[in-house]
Amino acid sequence: MCRHLGWLGEPVSVASLILEPANGLLVQSYSPRRQKHGLMNADGWGVGFFDGATPRRWRSATPMWGDASLASVAPALRSGCIVTAVRSASVGMPIEAAAAAPFTDGHWLLSHNGLVDRSVLPLSAGAESTNDSALLAALIFERGLDSLAGTIVEVAASDPNARLNILAGNGSRLLATTWGDTLSVLRRRDGIVVASEPYDDDPAWEEIPDRHIVEVSSSGMQLSILRGS
Length: 229
Ligand code: GLN
Hints:
Elements: E1 3-13, H1 14-18, H2 25-30, E2 45-51, E3 54-60, H3 70-73, E4 78-86, E5 103-104, E6 109-115, H4 132-143, H5 148-158, E7 163-169, E8 174-178, E9 184-188, E10 191-195, E11 206-207, E12 212-217, E13 220-225
Antiparallel strand pairs: 1-4, 1-10, 2-3, 2-4, 5-6, 6-7, 7-8, 8-12, 9-10, 9-11, 12-13
């Protein structure tokens, strides 16, 4: 399992979301507080953000805490839409930068927190790696993010043990699902944070119940039960 975090709002720095908070993704990479599967997230990380309409990424197959440059560069990376993740590779999955979220189709940045049997996913020429998360991302991109709820319910039906927490952003929207793992939301005055777990102890964090989909846009946040369409 992994931990992910998304931001939609006023432009803020990546450092302010993942490095500065007491329990930000950097700390979650070695000491997550709510992770149900796996002890730490040492198998890579990814920072994705929108630069205008262009998604940009910085990914690595090494632990976030060991990176020599992130602390220096992250304060200068500012965006109004950010998708970041730290990875704990599932057994048998490749450990390489291309297997670390966020994945992209050129329009969306997408992270998967969970595990799915690869045999229920179609092989896709568009997949960035051979891990389950990259194959699932390719399927979601192919079906379109407007069908995210239906795709998740369908994949869960073919693999009842699957855990399918998705976080995706396209610059003006964030979508997040809960299917088997934790998710919390923090509504700030300057925007909304959607994260696998709270980055601090602010009592304003709201826990999202399992099997739901959250949509964040400039008009606010909407929560719906996850069911096929
Ligand atoms: N199944 C994922 C992988 O190995 C585990 C990491 C995650 O939760 N995305 O890529």
